[in-house]
Amino acid sequence: MSIEEKLGFNKFYVDESNAHIIVKKSDFTDEELVILNKIIKACPAGLYSLNEDGTLRFDYAGCLECGTCRILAQGKVIEDWKYPQGTFGVEFRYG
Ligand code: SF4
C-alpha cells in the first residue's frame, strides 16, 4: 500500500472558523521564496503550492500536524501556527 493510500484513511475534523495555520499569501521576498519552495516540497500532505501569479495557495484542512512547515519557515512566511483546538484536527487511521 502506498503512502498516499495510507494517508487516504485519515479523517479530518476541520475548524472552519479558526485556521490553525495562517500564512502570508503574496509579495514574497527572495529569501521567503527560497523558504517557501522548501515548504512546498516538504509538506507531506502537499498543501502548499504557488499560483501562476506568484501568490500562495494553501488549505489547512488536510494538515497532518507534523510541524515541518513551521520549522522550515524560520519565523517567516507562516504568520501563525498552532495545533487545532479541542476535538478538531487529524485523526490518524493507519499507524
Ligand atoms: Fe503540511 Fe505538516 Fe505544515 Fe501541516 S504541519 S501544513 S502537514 S508541513
UniProtKB/TrEMBL annotation:
Coiled coil: none annotated. To ferredoxins from P.putida and C.tartarivorum, ferredoxin I from A.vinelandii, ferredoxin II from D.desulfuricans. This is Ferredoxin-like protein. PANTHER family: FERREDOXIN-LIKE, FERREDOXIN-LIKE PROTEIN YDIT. The keyword Electron transport applies. It comes from the Bacteria. Keywords: Electron transport, Iron, Iron-sulfur, Metal-binding, Nitrogen fixation, Transport. SUPFAM superfamilies: 4Fe-4S ferredoxins (SSF54862). Residues 15-91 form the ETF-QO/FixX C-terminal domain. Could be a 3Fe-4S cluster-containing protein.
